[in-house]
Amino acid sequence: MIRLFINCQAATSGSGLTYPRNVIPQLARRQDVDTTVLLSPALRREFGDLPNISYVETSDFSGAARRFFHEQTALPKLIRQSGAQVLISAGNFALFNSPVPQILLSGNSLYTSADFFRDLRARGDYRLWADTLVKGWFARRSVERADLTVAPSDAFARDLSHWSGKKVVAIHHGFDAKIFARDRTPLPAEVQARLDAGKVALRLLFVSHYNYYRNFETLFRAIPILQERLRGKPVKLYLTCRLNYADNPGKYKAEAASSLVNHLCLGHHIVELGALPYCSLHHLYRACHVYVTPAYAESFAHPLVEAMSSGLPVVASDLPVHHEVCGDAALYFPRFSCEAIAEAVLGICQSPALAAQLSDNGRKRSQDFSWEKHVDCLLDFARGLVSAG
């Protein structure tokens, strides 16, 4: 029996929520693992009572600084009380005075991304630039303090190792196609109506809340080019966000992107669905023709696996992590080239054989990702730390 303490206090959105939602049920099935999880009350309610899992609820903190201070001061006592042998820190930042060996899960590629810092300077967002530098300093110190740092992809592990000067190992995040597609509840009527309105259109999909590093603006600039080359066939780009500050997590200002949509007269082509429940996303994927991501920074990208499992051909920016995740299930383009996005999408539209091949490759590739395998590897590392101690 091994006893773990998992700090999920930072799980608030995106992959931060995806991780505990999949890993905690996996750990509950293990008879040889006893796990204590620190998480928010809202996330705690999602799990109910699971075998072999104990919960410690924490307050919802309004900022990363307050959360970090709380972790550094309160966690050591909670870990000792739980009897844990290994701490797993799941939010990019380590506990600097951990009473037990610590595995740091690091998944934020922004601290190592030169493109992100260039983008912030170009936008004049110096407050976020400074905030990222400060958090990056703590993230680097966290890698130094952890007994082992784990990244969700080989590509990001290499970046993180080069950036920190420390050894970083990779364990791919997982995916469960049955769980992803098990909810048969239809999409909300309003969302379905907006999809039905685009039935005759080429339907592109991009699943993300608005932020800078997902490079929305390059994708928007590709739409008029694609529309012209399709010679009259309408194009619809469906987004799972809204282009305003209030409807997105983080400190990203979406007003410039919204202005670009208006400037390019894309109001009829870009459909802002807003955030959808995770259990409904499989309906949305299957209602579209091509998944497109122009992101210039990424550490894993769960929507790519979801898209491949749903049978969508993928068009992705040429990040090493995208190549690693998708392999031969995607067409790739230079990350800031709107013309290349249009060309790649056009190639799929004009070749049903290519579309079918990418779809088939994607379904096969999505089966390579497993949360069970991920947890197996994580537990092997945890047991190794206990044995070494």
Number of helices: 16
Q: What does the overall shape look like?
A: globular
Structural class: alpha/beta
Strand content: 5-15%
Q: Bin the helical content.
A: 40-55%
Task: Please report the total strand number as a whole number.
Answer: 13
Overview of this protein structure:
By secondary structure, the protein is an alpha/beta fold. It has two domains: 2-174 and 370-388, Rossmann fold, CATH 3.40.50.2000; 177-366, Rossmann fold (3-Layer(aba) Sandwich). The chain has helices at residues 15-28, 41-47, 64-82, 114-123, 126-145, 154-164, 177-180, 189-196, 216-229, 255-263, 281-286, 302-309, 320-326, 338-350, 352-366, 371-388, and strands spanning 2-7, 33-39, 53-57, 86-89, 102-105, 148-151, 168-170, 202-206, 235-239, 270-272, 290-293, 314-317, 330-333. It is globular and about 65 Å long. The two termini are 16 Å apart.
Give short descriptive properties of this protein.
globular, 2 domains, Rossmann fold, 13 strands, alpha/beta, 6-stranded parallel sheet, 7-stranded parallel sheet, 389 residues
In a few lines, what is going on in this structure?
The protein is α/β, with parallel strands linked by helices. 47% of the residues lie in helices and 15% in strands.
Blueprint (SSEs and pairs):
Layout: E1 2-7, H1 15-28, E2 33-39, H2 41-47, E3 53-57, H3 64-82, E4 86-89, E5 102-105, H4 114-123, H5 126-145, E6 148-151, H6 154-164, E7 168-170, H7 177-180, H8 189-196, E8 202-206, H9 216-229, E9 235-239, H10 255-263, E10 270-272, H11 281-286, E11 290-293, H12 302-309, E12 314-317, H13 320-326, E13 330-333, H14 338-350, H15 352-366, H16 371-388
Parallel strand pairs: 1-2, 1-4, 2-3, 4-5, 5-6, 6-7, 8-9, 8-11, 9-10, 11-12, 12-13
Helix pairs in contact: 1-16, 9-14, 12-15, 14-15
